[in-house]
Structure formats: structure tokens, C-alpha cells
Design brief:
six-stranded mixed beta sheet; 561 residues; 3 domains; alpha+beta; seven-stranded mixed beta sheet; 14 helices
């Protein structure tokens, strides 16, 4: 169907009153409103199916006030702001009764992260996508109710751009651009993270992303206080965490994990008012943890797991049911393989026997098959990889820490000198032996067929919240990945399909993940709004948890190649 007037759409909706639901497919096409056009991308075939996908289009002449960005991150921030504004505006649509999703509107923005999403594309024009449930009684069209709903929708879309809050838009963009400015400069400053003065780190609850009311604003220890002069906000002060091994310690419930969580979230910019706007973490940071029962495919575990009884080799190790220590060792090596430069760990979620082996256990157990992370700290540093570790009971790390942050009642203090003095006064007596195997990564190339999503003749790809991806015949457990929106899980499924096309049995997984994520426009990847940006680190981590993954080890590329 060609382009028709918006009033024609309203007339058609009225004429569909009482017709069977599939007649809604007559709406397919583009309908021209006043200052905008509305396209039906997908019309649902049933009131209980996923709501229809609509796309509103604004022409270039209407977009002058949106060109307020100076860098690509600013453009993403404009798109993010527009989606949030559209979501808020469409809450005022009239309520419509009926079956299934009748009258319900879904604009895909779920977190305070400023992310590239498939729901918005700012180019020569502007396109915004959302879902709307077409009204029905049973499986009969409620045409008059639909016409009333779409008349109100048209009024909101007509006034959407003229009514935008220009100051709020500018603040949104400037915040994202200042974040990107700091993040790019962290390595040159010898830092892995920055936490701004006044940041609000605690959240309302474990399942809420809202800042905790009444929480203490963050105050930097004077000795770790640094400043960045950013393009828009001027000079910004906060705590800089140096490269190397950083310990975050303190008593229970004093804010150790809260600080680590903020650093995990700090790889992405946040909207103004979130409280973590000035928490900026190295872009190639990744949290790793133990995962009992996960699968591992073809990882050279010898840097951490070796010399198993009965001569079992760990140079190309696979299992369907990894233990806590084995899964943590695999996660560390997989993260390095994917290019992580900062590893974030918490004692609470890490297998203790891979964190440390104290003097008493060294004396008792002489044939140990594990090399703990403690004995690899200098090797990580030699690779240019930093560690940030939350510890509350493993004091052996005080011997090697470059920086110690002591949390007391959510107030950080630098305790590096005190920690070193305590380490000298209370030696552990443990021996730091020379590990038998070097800390190196053997790249793995996925074999063709690893990412085949077909079950029988049909491909099955479906996200199940933040924790699971239904892919072909299996459910991929994503609970250990740091994902913040359901739309990121859906993008992982779409990118698995790209990996299916790219995998040749020769190209390392890290290279494939980087290529797959280089989607110039999520808007063009699939005609749905439920896609949100993930990094190659998340894509690679998800692939490593696919039980159908088959790999072969390949030689690492030569330096300079």
C-alpha cells in the first residue's frame, strides 16, 4: 500500500469495526500525518500475539533542534532521549479495553543506560519504533476504539518534536559526551576507573536501578583524588583507581560490593539523575565469577588447572559441568581471549581455592592441581591486565596490592600504606612458587555449525528475560553476564545468527565477536524495536556458554600482524 493521509487511516479503522482480527493487515503501509508519517512495520495476526510494530517518521527539516551533538556518543544520546521522551508522552494515550494486548503501548527503554537501540535512528530523517496492541473483543476488531486511540496517537506524534525539552536534551547529550571523553582518557592517565564526587552508588534494592533515597554522596579519598576537564561540565573531580591490583575491602555491609557494582555498570554512560553519571570504567572491563555447572569448550586451562590425576590433559579442556574453580579459571582465560583489560571479581562469587592457597594448605596438600589467582597477579600485570578484587577475608592479597580502598560506612579511604605495614608485620608464611605454565591465551576458532539455531526445520531464537536465551535446541544461561535490558538478550540472539554466517573454523572467537558487533545500524538489523547494544565481550561470553559450541585452537596472531 502506498502513502495515504492519516484521516484515511482513521476512516479505515472505523470501517473495520467487528471484522475478524486478520483484517487489521489492511493497515500495512505508510500513512501521512501533519509533520510526520506512520508506518505499520508488522501487524499482529492475533490480539494475544506480540503487539504490532509501528514506525513514526519525521523529515529532515523538522530535526534542526536535534543536531546538538559533537561526537557519535552524542548522537546515540539524542536517540536515547527521544525514545525516553516518546515513552513518557505515550503514557497519556487513552485507555482501551479489549482482549490480549489491546491498546497497550511498548517503547523499548528499560534501564538508565544510554545505549544504542533499534527503536531510534537519527539520520537524514528521524525514525522511532514502538509496539502497540491493536484493539479487539475476542478476535473481532474494535474499529471505533482503534480510531479513537489512533486519533490521540496522531495528536501526540504531531506535537512530539515541537514540545521536546531542549534543555533536558542538551544535558542528556552533554553528559554522554563528557562520559566518553573521560573513558577514552583513562588508559593515558594510568587509571582503570573514575568515580565522581557526589555520586550516589547504592540502589533502592537488588532489582531496582533507581538511586537509594538518603544515600551518602560519594567522597574521594584525598590521596586518590584526580580531576578531568571535560568539554561541557568543565573540571570534574573524583576518585581515580590506578592500574594494577586494586583491593576493595571493609566490613560486611559497608559498601564494598556496591562500589564494585557501580564499576561494572560504569562501562556505559547513564542518564542525568541516575547518580552514577560520573562513574566511568575502562571500556574493556569485564566481571568474572564462578558458575557451577556451566559448559566449557576447548579452553587451555593449564595456567590455573593442570596435572590432573590419571593424566587428564587440560590443554584443550571441555566439560558439561564445570566446578566453581574450573568455571572461574575458564572465565578468566575466556575474558583475556576476548580482549578484556580490566577484570572485576568479588570474593563472595569466586571459588576460594582459585583465589588463594594459604601456607597451611600448601604444607598439607603437596600435589595441588590449581594455581590460584594470587600466584598470577604479576603475570596479569605483565600482560597489561588490571584486577579489581573485593575481599573481606582473604588477607594474603595485601602482600601484592598496588591500591587498597577501605570502605567504612560507605566512605572510601585509601589504606594502601597501612595494608603494606600489616602485611610486613603479619607475614602469611605462604610460598610464592614459579607457576609451571605461563599465563597465556590460546585463541579458539568456532567451527561451522556451532551457531545453528534450527530445531527441526525451524529456527528458534527467543530471549527469556535477562538470564536466558532460547537458541535452537538449548537454553543459554546468561545469568553471569552483566546485561541490563531484555533487548540486549534479543540482540545476542540476532548476533549469534551473524556468528553462524562468519564462523569458518579458522577465525578466533574474539575476532568474530568484534566483527559481529560492528553493526552500523541496529535499526536495519531487524525491523523490531527490541534490540540494544552489547559489547564484543558480552557476545563472546554468551557464545562461550552455548553448549553446542565446538572449537579448535588456533595460533595467536604475531605481534604487528
Amino acid at each position: 500500500m502506498g502513502r495515504q493521509g492519516y484521516r484515511d487511516l482513521l476512516d479505515l479503522l472505523k470501517a473495520l469495526e467487528g471484522r475478524p482480527y486478520p483484517f487489521y493487515r489492511d493497515l500495512e503501509g505508510v500513512w501521512q500525518g501533519e509533520g510526520f508519517a506512520l508506518r505499520f512495520v508488522h501487524v499482529q495476526g492475533d490480539p494475544f500475539a506480540a503487539p504490532s510494530v509501528l514506525e513514526v517518521l519525521y523529515p529532515e527539516p523538522a530535526l534542526g533542534s536535534l543536531r546538538v551533538y559533537a561526537r557519535p556518543e552524542g548522537r546515540v544520546a539524542v536517540e536515547d532521549f527521544l525514545l525516553r521522551s516518546l515513552k513518557a508522552r505515550l503514557r497519556a494515550l487513552p485507555q482501551v479495553g479489549g482482549s490480549g494486548h489491546s491498546g497497550r503501548v511498548f517503547v523499548e527503554v528499560e534501564s538508565p543506560k544510554v545505549l544504542k537501540r533499534a527503536g531510534a535512528h537519527l539520520g537524514r530523517g528521524l525514525a522511532l519504533r514502538f509496539r502497540l496492541g491493536l484493539p479487539a473483543a475476542g478476535r473481532r476488531i474494535l474499529g471505533k476504539e482503534a480510531a479513537r486511540l489512533f486519533w490521540a496517537l496522531g495528536e501526540h506524534l504531531r506535537g512530539f518534536l515541537p514540545d521536546l525539552d531542549g534543555r533536558a536534551l542538551l544535558a542528556h547529550v552533554h553528559q554522554a559526551e563528557d562520559f566518553a571523553f573521560i573513558q577514552e582518557r583513562l588508559p593515558a592517565r594510568g587509571l582503570v576507573a573514575f568515580v565522581g564526587e557526589g555520586a550516589i552508588l547504592p540502589r533502592e534494592s537488588g532489582v531496582s536501578q533507581r538511586p537509594l533515597k538518603g544515600a551518602l554522596p560519594f567522597e574521594s579519598p584525598p590521596s586518590l583524588r584526580v580531576a578531568f576537564r571535560v568539554p561541557h561540565a568543565g573540571e570534574v573531580w573524583g576518585m581515580g583507581l590506578p592500574r594494577g591490583l586494586t583491593l576493595i575491602t571493609g566490613g560486611g555491609f559497608h559498601g564494598k560490593t556496591t562500589l564494585l557494582e557501580a564499576l561494572v555498570h560504569g562501562v556505559h554512560p547513564h542518564v542525568p539523575g541516575d547518580g552514577r553519571e560520573w562513574v566511568v570504567t575502562e571500556a574493556l572491563s569485564q566481571r568474572v565469577q564462578s558458575e557451577d555447572g556451566r559448559s566449557v569448550r576447548g579452553v587451555d586451562l593449564r595456567p590455573f588447572v593442570h596435572d590432573l590425576p590419571l593424566g587428564q590433559d587440560t590443554a584443550f579442556f571441555s566439560t558439561e559441568d564445570a566446578s566453581g574453580s574450573t568455571s572461574l579459571a575458564a572465565a578468566l582465560l575466556e575474558a583475556l581471549e576476548l580482549g578484556a583489560r580490566v577484570l572485576l571479581l568479588d570474593e563472595d562469587t569466586s571459588a576460594t581455592n582459585l583465589l588463594v592457597r594459604d601456607a597451611r594448605m600448601q604444607a598439607l596438600v603437596r600435589r595441588e592441581t590449581l594455581t590460584p589467582i594470587l600466584d598470577r597477579v604479576q603475570d596479569f600485570k605483565a600482560l597489561g591486565v588490571s584486577l579489581v578484587l573485593v575481599v573481606g577475608g582473604v588477607g594474603d592479597y595485601l602482600d601484592l596490592a598496588d591500591t587498597v580502598v577501605l570502605m567504612e560506612a560507605y566512605r572510601p579511604q585509601e589504606a594502601t600504606a597501612e595494608a603494606r605495614a600489616i602485611a610486613r608485620a603479619h607475614p602469611t608464611g605462604r610460598a610464592y612458587g614459579e607457576p609451571r605454565y605461563p599465563l597465556q591465551v590460546r585463541p579458539r576458532a568456532p567451527l561451522p555449525g556451532s551457531f545453528d539455531p534450527r530445531k527441526g526445520r525451524r529456527a528458534r531464537v527467543k530471549g527469556r528475560g535477562l538470564r536466558e536465551l532460547l537458541y535452537g535446541e538449548e537454553v543459554v544461561d546468561l545469568s553471569a553476564l552483566d546485561l541490563f535490558e531484555n533487548a540486549q538478550v534479543r540482540l545476542l540472539g540476532a548476533l549469534f545468527r551473524r556468528l553462524e554466517a562468519l564462523a569458518d573454523g579458522k577465525t578466533p572467537l574474539g575476532v568474530l565477536a568484534a566483527r559481529a558487533v560492528q553493526v552500523e545500524d541496529l535499526f536495519a538489523l531487524e525491523e523490531v524495536p527490541e534490540l540494544a547494544f552489547v559489547r564484543p565481550l558480552e557476545l563472546g561470553a554468551a557464545a562461550n556458554r552455548l553448549r553446542a559450541l565446538a572449537v579448535r585452537q588456533v595460533e595467536p596472531p604475531h605481534q604487528g600482524s
